Amino acid sequence: MIQQIVFIVLAALTVGSALGVITARHTVHAALFLVMTFVASAGLWLLLHAEFLALVLVLVYVGAVMVLFLFIVMMLDTDSQSLRQGLVRYAPLGVVVALIVFAEIGYVVYNRELGVSFGTPLPQAAGFSNTRALGETIYTVYAFPFEIAAVVLLVGIVAAIMLTLRRRPGVRHQNISKQVRVSAKRGRLRIVNMPSEPRPPEKNP
How far apart are CA 179 and CA 62, in angstroms? Predict the structure, then answer.
């Protein structure tokens, strides 16, 4: 009974926060709603005895990705009014996509032919490790898709670095060959002798 109440509260919090992400007027508020969505989703993972996924969701997405998003959003200081100018134009497409998504979710939940039980998860043995079971599954059954995902992420990182290092006026770039040619006696340290400034005269009280 308590587990069902916790599930209902976390599910309502997840759905409400997700709606807050797309309805918030300020981008910082939308990012904070997304943080709350991740935290509530981590609670749902804990109810399914997937502790590793819950911790990864909190540590990686909430602790790293969303903090980065918040810094980027606050530094960019985007104009939310200009972003909403095309909202009415794309609203019908968004409604159609939302209806399709809700229809798919309803089909999965209410279809009796799937044979999926949505009851409480079965208890595991005392020495069962969720992290070990997940690692064995990833690196045996899904090893090839896992490597492909790693390559795709690496390509995204390299592309982001190349877009950042575009040749723009007034931007300093690292010259590795010039740094390697620097010797210990030449070009590494320059000592400048500057005369001390004269001490100002003291004023008599």
Answer: 38
- Domain span at residue 141 reads 129-165
pLDDT of residue 132: 83
Q: pLDDT (tens digit, 9 = 90+) per residue, 144-161?
A: 998 999 999 899 888 877
pLDDT band with cut points at 50, 70 and 90 for residue 176: confident
Q: Which of 124, 121, 130, 135 is nearest to 51 (CA)?
A: 130
Q: Residue 56 falls within a domain, yes or no?
A: yes
How far lies 60's CA from each of 22, 53, 99, 117, 138, in Å?
Answer: 22, 10, 31, 30, 18
Domain contains 67:
yes
b/e for 63-100, b at 16 or more Cβ within 10 A?
A: eeebeebbeebeeeeeeeeeeeeeeeeeeeeeeeeeee
What is the per-residue pLDDT for 174?
Answer: 73
Domain assignment of residue 31, yes or no: yes
Burial (0-12, 13-18, 19+ Cβ within 10 Å), 55: middle
How far apart, in whole angstroms, are the C-alpha atoms of residue 52 and residue 46?
9
In a domain, 195, yes or no: no
pTM of the entire predicted model: 0.56
